[in-house]
Write a structure and sequence with these properties.
This protein is an alpha+beta fold. The protein is built from eleven helices and 16 strands. Helix 6 packs antiparallel against helix 7 and helix 8 packs across helix 9.
């Protein structure tokens, strides 16, 4: 029987979808959970004698993200235990500063982005640009750290705050722009333990201040971003629609039939870097060029599917040098079921 380890992060329930997926395969696998933030993590790994590991990287605070990544480095380079997703996918997850450097080094198309660790350099930069400008914090999903700056006054204020004890502005509470406030209110009224968990998480995020640098990105005019999801041989895409000035975190989607050139673009990246699980958010310019905005190996899912083609859920696969649409339900359990099937297949191929 195959032995699989789930690498828990600091958030108590973050790894539960992995457990739910593993429970469906208990006839062929035995699994255990290792808290990668605990002091005895290496001892627990050795005791487990796992064939491969399922990661749920930290994406809430910079400190825990660093701890998780450091230990992933040891697992990958010293202990040499197979990981899903891969170590590189984990490193670029929720680390916009590193992602930008990685995209530049590999000559992958993306909006012009600059990171400043010196206040005077940041001030000089905003004195000579066109507006608007996108400011981002290094860690923060669902648009929580994305701010659109419209003029020098807003930019100088942002820089001043980022290089002070206040730190860069970041949403630390609920995302009110997603709507459903009444429904969410009733849920928390009926489940008070959930609001306590949320408040505890918000307190931690609020205390995690980014200070001493700023990350500025070129603003790309857009009405939507394409989200291209790739897990193993399965490809999906949908539109993330813009609310006000940005698409990140809006949860507004459109399920137009995606052009297969999106999958050609993603396939080249996945194969070049041996990636296994990615959501690649891209801007489509007026000339048709695609620019990478974000890349995440773990990502949220608010609908039961990632793609509709002619109104039918399904996936695209590349066979016989052609893209084929296969209808079906491939995104159960927030895609973790598909991830686990893919991880098992990849491991078995490696053993063959």
């Amino acid at each position: 029987m195959m032995k699989i380890g789930i690498l828990k992060n600091e958030v108590e329930e973050d790894h539960f979808p992995w457990i739910k997926a593993c429970e469906k395969y208990k006839n062929i696998i035995d699994y255990g959970v290792v808290d990668l933030t605990a002091s005895d993590w290496m001892e627990k790994l050795e005791q487990g004698n796992y064939d491969f590991l399922l990661a749920k990287p930290s994406g809430m605070t910079a400190g825990y993200k660093q701890v998780y990544d450091e230990r992933i480095f040891i697992i990958d380079n010293v202990l040499k235990i197979h990981l899903f997703p891969s170590a590189l996918e984990i490193y670029i997850y929720e680390n916009k500063r590193f992602l930008n450097t990685w995209l530049m080094a590999n000559d992958l198309p993306h909006p012009r982005t600059t990171v400043f660790f010196h206040k005077n350099e940041a001030v000089g930069f905003v004195n000579q640009i066109t507006w608007p400008l996108v400011a981002k914090v290094n860690i923060g999903a669902s648009g929580s750290g994305v701010k659109i700056l419209h003029d020098k006054g807003e930019a100088f204020k942002y820089i001043e705050q980022s290089f002070s004890s206040k730190g860069a502005p970041r949403r630390w509470g609920p995302n009110l722009s997603t709507g459903n406030l009444l429904k969410r209110g009733f849920h928390y009224l009926l489940h008070p333990q959930d609001i306590r968990k949320k408040m505890a998480k918000y307190t931690v995020v609020k205390a995690d201040k980014q200070k001493g640098f700023v990350l500025f990105q070129e603003y790309i005019p857009h009405d939507f971003e394409w989200r291209i999801v790739v897990i193993g041989d399965s490809y999906f895409a949908h539109k993330k629609m813009k609310m006000k000035e940005k698409a990140s975190g809006s949860l507004l989607k459109a399920y137009d039939n995606p052009p297969t050139r999106l999958f050609d673009f993603a396939k080249g990246i996945m194969e070049k870097f041996s990636f296994t699980s990615q959501a690649i958010d891209v801007f489509e310019k007026s000339d048709g060029d695609l620019l990478i905005n974000e890349m995440q190996c773990i990502f949220g899912q608010s609908d039961p599917y990632q793609m509709l083609v002619d109104g039918k859920p399904g996936r695209y696969c590349y066979k016989n040098e052609k893209w084929w649409f296969e209808p079906g339900d491939f995104n159960t359990n927030e895609c973790y079921d598909l991830r686990l099937r893919t991880a098992i297949e990849l491991y078995n191929k490696g053993r063959a």
